[in-house]
DNA sequence: GACATTTGACCGGG
DNA sequence: CCCGGTCAAATGTC
């Protein structure tokens, strides 16, 4: 996967072009969903490649120097590398017993999570299964930092890790730093104790959960950001209104940890038995996040094309950003495999 | 017994 | 040499 090197100037326009490309590919995919699986696979690869390029553009052109936002804690953020991680296939890294510090990790995304449970000593479940492997007192921090790795590191070679540290100023907030990407087939539904209908693929199930959430992604403070629309200082605002009939555990729109730095996330505690969910979730997303999620969604979508469909409610994805452009994806309620996709350029 | 967590030691980058 | 990230043995939980 090669990053497309683009000058900082017209980066957003190019990414819009790439997004449009993705849209067209998804449209084709939509057409062929009931047809040739091979063609779907091919389209999936193309979508994946385009998405990767887009991420590469953002990384190389717009996120070479992570700026701290107002919500930023005192955590340093080294520049994102221009070499995004290869997501294709399971990278079976041998994982040498190396205690080397990972300073310039390729996929490093920081978010701030508030635990709705208040006194909980860990942020709300992010949809992945983690295993704690260490804890350290950090100089200048009031609370220790906990180190987690993916539960499926051994079995599936998943290299994803995360660090969780309670914020000094507000004990209800946690700074979560994700490293790497999940290559595992995470069984979030099963892990959350959800009953899975027989004969359905976990991947499809997970995807359908994602599709079942109503999502809205919009830019926030574009004008205040200055010249380049979604510049490095402009986060995306991500809101997910509550979907009727969905339990909080099903409500996680995306379970991937590919969240960017400088994000503020507040979400209900998904493991709480009583669904006393607030009206909506909010998180600020950078374009990198949007693309990462889109990439994940699309790949999962295509992976699931051959799977049997499950009951879903209508879902609508709206990706706002990149100046005045927007991408809308509507999941038709009667058929999960059908999507109404449209773009807008105001 | 299997798996997860705790915790001190170890390692290496800066 | 300090400090952050990881290891791995000990311990806890189911």
TrEMBL record:
<keyword id="KW-0539">Nucleus</keyword>
<dbReference type="GO" id="GO:0042542">
    <property type="term" value="P:response to hydrogen peroxide"/>
</dbReference>
<dbReference type="GO" id="GO:0000976">
    <property type="term" value="F:transcription cis-regulatory region binding"/>
</dbReference>
<comment type="similarity">
    <text>Belongs to the WRKY group III family.</text>
</comment>
<keyword id="KW-0805">Transcription regulation</keyword>
<dbReference type="InterPro" id="IPR044810">
    <property type="entry name" value="WRKY_plant"/>
</dbReference>
<dbReference type="GO" id="GO:0005634">
    <property type="term" value="C:nucleus"/>
</dbReference>
<dbReference type="GO" id="GO:0006355">
    <property type="term" value="P:regulation of DNA-templated transcription"/>
</dbReference>
<dbReference type="GO" id="GO:0010193">
    <property type="term" value="P:response to ozone"/>
</dbReference>
<dbReference type="GO" id="GO:0009751">
    <property type="term" value="P:response to salicylic acid"/>
</dbReference>
<dbReference type="InterPro" id="IPR036576">
    <property type="entry name" value="WRKY_dom_sf"/>
</dbReference>
<dbReference type="GO" id="GO:0003700">
    <property type="term" value="F:DNA-binding transcription factor activity"/>
</dbReference>
<feature type="compositionally biased region" description="Polar residues">
    <location>
        <begin position="80"/>
        <end position="95"/>
    </location>
</feature>
<keyword id="KW-0238">DNA-binding</keyword>
<keyword id="KW-0804">Transcription</keyword>
<dbReference type="Pfam" id="PF03106">
    <property type="entry name" value="WRKY"/>
</dbReference>
<feature type="domain" description="WRKY">
    <location>
        <begin position="119"/>
        <end position="182"/>
    </location>
</feature>
<dbReference type="InterPro" id="IPR003657">
    <property type="entry name" value="WRKY_dom"/>
</dbReference>
<feature type="region of interest" description="Disordered">
    <location>
        <begin position="68"/>
        <end position="128"/>
    </location>
</feature>
<dbReference type="GO" id="GO:0010150">
    <property type="term" value="P:leaf senescence"/>
</dbReference>
<protein>
    <recommendedName>
        <fullName>WRKY domain-containing protein</fullName>
    </recommendedName>
</protein>
């Amino acid at each position: 996967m090669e990053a497309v090197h683009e000058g900082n100037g017209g980066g957003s326009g190019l990414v819009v072009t790439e997004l449009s490309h993705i849209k067209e590919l998804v449209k084709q995919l939509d057409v062929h969903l009931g047809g040739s699986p091979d063609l779907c696979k091919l389209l999936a690869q193309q979508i994946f490649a385009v998405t990767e390029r887009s991420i590469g553009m953002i990384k190389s052109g717009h996120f070479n120097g992570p700026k701290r936002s107002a919500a930023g804690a005192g955590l340093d953020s080294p520049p994102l590398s221009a070499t995004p991680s290869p997501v294709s296939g399971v990278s079976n890294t041998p994982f040498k017993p190396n205690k080397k510090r990972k300073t310039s990790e390729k996929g490093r995304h920081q978010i701030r999570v508030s635990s709705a449970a208040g006194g909980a000593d860990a942020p709300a479940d992010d949809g992945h299964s983690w295993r704690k492997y260490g804890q350290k007192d950090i100089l200048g921090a009031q609370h220790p930092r906990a180190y987690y790795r993916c539960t499926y590191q051994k079995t599936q070679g998943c290299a994803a890790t995360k660090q969780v540290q309670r914020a000094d100023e507000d004990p209800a907030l946690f700074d979560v730093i994700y490293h790497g990407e999940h290559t595992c087939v995470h069984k979030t539904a099963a892990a959350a104790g959800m009953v899975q209908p027989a004969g359905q693929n976990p991947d499809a199930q997970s995807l359908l959960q994602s599709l079942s959430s109503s999502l809205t992604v919009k830019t926030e403070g574009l004008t205040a950001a200055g010249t380049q629309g979604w510049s490095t200082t402009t986060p995306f605002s991500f809101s997910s209104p509550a979907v009727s009939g969905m339990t909080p555990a099903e409500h996680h729109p995306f379970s991937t940890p590919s969240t960017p730095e400088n994000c503020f996330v507040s979400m209900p505690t998904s493991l709480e038995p009583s669904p006393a969910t607030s009206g909506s979730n909010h998180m600020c997303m950078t374009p990198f996040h949007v693309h990462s999620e889109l990439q994940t969604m699309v790949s999962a979508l295509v992976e699931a094309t051959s799977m049997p469909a499950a009951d879903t409610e209508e879902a609508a994805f709206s990706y706002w950003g990149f100046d005045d452009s927007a991408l809308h994806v509507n999941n038709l309620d009667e058929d999960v495999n059908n999507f109404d996709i449209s773009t807008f350029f105001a």
